[in-house]
Write a structure and sequence with these properties.
By secondary structure, the chain is of the alpha+beta class. It is built from twelve helices and 21 strands. It has two domains: about 210 residues, Naphthalene 1,2-dioxygenase Alpha Subunit, Chain A, domain 1; about 120 residues, 3-layer Sandwich (Rieske Iron-sulfur Protein). Bound molecules: FE2/S2 (inorganic) cluster and fe (ii) ion.
């Protein structure tokens, strides 16, 4: 299969050739594939472990369970963060069972071994009973690499992977103007789902599904193909700019009244939608002007550093292999899937929403409704299908997962058949092939 490049949609500066590997079903269903990912993919990438905001004092910790692995990140006395495997060096017991908290000593629940926040063994029962003498001060927790970016802590199991910022390139620079450092995670939602983790990765690597799965977005996000810009980077990360504050050009909204909810969005910035009847596409420029003029007095001081495009459009960044950051100037959505510990046909879906800490703002609008503007205002884990919302748009994305997994199990499925605009999916799977076969 060959995908024809369409240069009007792929940025000439950031385009990557694809080979045309067949995207076979086994990667979504087979335990062998899952084992190869476990051995050759997951150790070689950076993982978003949690929020710096939860690690304020020495001994504060957060835990991130990933597949069969579990990692703890701990604030040190020198203000750095260190990461350790959550496994006791004595006989392997999981050390930390909570998601976050404070421990002056990391203490194992089995025989009571105690470790200082830097992972050094500090106290054991019967210290003189060890053949080589008291192990305190000599035995350490097994550590991993740990780095921070913006409000986040990341960990990585491999010493040869580039440092976090280099690994993220160019997205760490492209996202800098949003001023994410002190943004607040207000939602931490997750669910167990009955499909392989890559089903939703593929979904986030294309916008082909917007008109069919998210028709409601068409009145304020221009999902028209010629107007959407895709960028693909050598690293495997990619991004997509979708024009916001403008209805789709797939259908003719532009010569009519300003559609909802764009009319209310315009009014919120002091713009009368009636003035834009017949040329609704021009509202976007009016919002840019209004945000520049009114933003600072409303507390949006970070607007000053943003480009016009950043002020009104959606910047959807997909980091290889499993992290999506969807940026708008007033909200960051973190969306990702992680593998189930043992079952290739299951995954864990996570949706975090971060908001800027606007002075005086007590409540913010999120994909599950209004919530207080404070860290983890809503934290919940559910089973997909039990009727608990993961956010309106995320629910729509998840709605296809189970049936797609079922269809991929069919003998009749011969491999994906992609249009050019889904080239990011093709690239994702080719890079994945390289990783699982040990070529990266
Ligand atoms: S396994 Fe941790 S103290 Fe024994
Ligand atoms: Fe979607």
């Amino acid at each position: 299969m060959t995908l024809q490049d369409n240069k009007s949609r792929y940025s000439p500066e950031f385009d990557v050739a694809v080979r045309g590997d067949t995207i076979t079903a086994d990667r979504y269903i087979s335990p062998e594939w899952m084992k190869k990912e476990h051995a050759n993919l997951w150790p070689k990438v950076w993982h978003l472990g949690g929020m710096l905001a939860e690690l304020e004092e020495e001994g504060d910790f957060i835990r991130h369970d990933f597949g069969k692995e579990s990692v703890i990140m701990v604030r040190q006395g020198d203000d750095t963060i260190r990461a350790f495997y959550n496994s006791c060096p004595h006989r392997g017991n999981r050390l930390v069972l909570g998601d976050a908290g404070h421990m002056p000593r990391i203490t194992c629940g089995y025989h009571g071994w105690q470790f200082t926040p830097d992972g050094v063994l500090a106290k054991v029962q019967d210290p003189d009973d060890f053949p080589d003498g008291n192990p305190c001060g000599k035995v350490h927790l097994s550590s991993l690499r740990c780095e921070t970016w913006g409000p986040f802590v990341f960990w990585c199991m491999d010493d040869d992977v580039p440092p976090l910022r280099e690994w993220m390139a160019p997205l760490q620079d492209r996202l800098a103007n949003y001023g994410l450092d002190n943004w607040v995670r207000v939602l931490k939602l997750s669910c167990d789902a009955d499909f392989n983790w890559k089903i939703i990765r593929d979904n986030f690597n294309e916008s082909y599904h917007l008109p069919t799965i998210h028709p409601e977005l068409a009145t304020f996000i221009n999902d028209g193909l010629p107007t959407t810009l895709f960028e693909m980077y050598e690293s495997g990360h990619n991004s997509m700019w979708m024009i916001g504050h403008q209805a789709t050009t797939r259908t003719d909204y532009h010569s009519a009244e300003v559609p909802a909810p764009l009319d209310d969005i315009a009014r919120a910035w002091g713009i009368d939608p009636a003035d834009y009847k017949g040329h609704t596409g021009d509202i976007r420029a009016a919002v840019i002007e209004a945000k520049r003029r009114l933003g600072p007095e409303r507390g949006y001081t970070m607007y000053a550093d943003m480009t016009d495009q950043q002020l009104v459009d959606y910047f959807h960044c997909t980091l290889f292999p499993n992290l999506t950051l969807t940026m708008s100037p007033e909200q960051l959505q973190v969306l990702r899937t992680e593998p189930h510990p043992t079952d290739p046909e299951k995954c864990i879906f996570q949706h975090w929403v971060l908001m800027p800490p606007i002075k005086g703002m007590k409540e913010v609008a999120t994909p599950i409704g209004n919530v207080p503007l404070r860290h983890d205002a809503v934290v919940r884990h559910s089973k997909y299908g039990d009727g608990v919302s993961l956010g309106f748009v995320a629910d729509q994305d998840l709605s296809i997962g189970t049936t797609q997994q079922q269809g991929l199990n069919s003998r009749g499925f011969k491999g994906c058949f992609l249009p050019a605009q889904e080239k990011r999916i093709q690239r994702f799977h080719e890079l994945l092939n390289d990783y699982v076969e040990g070529r990266r």
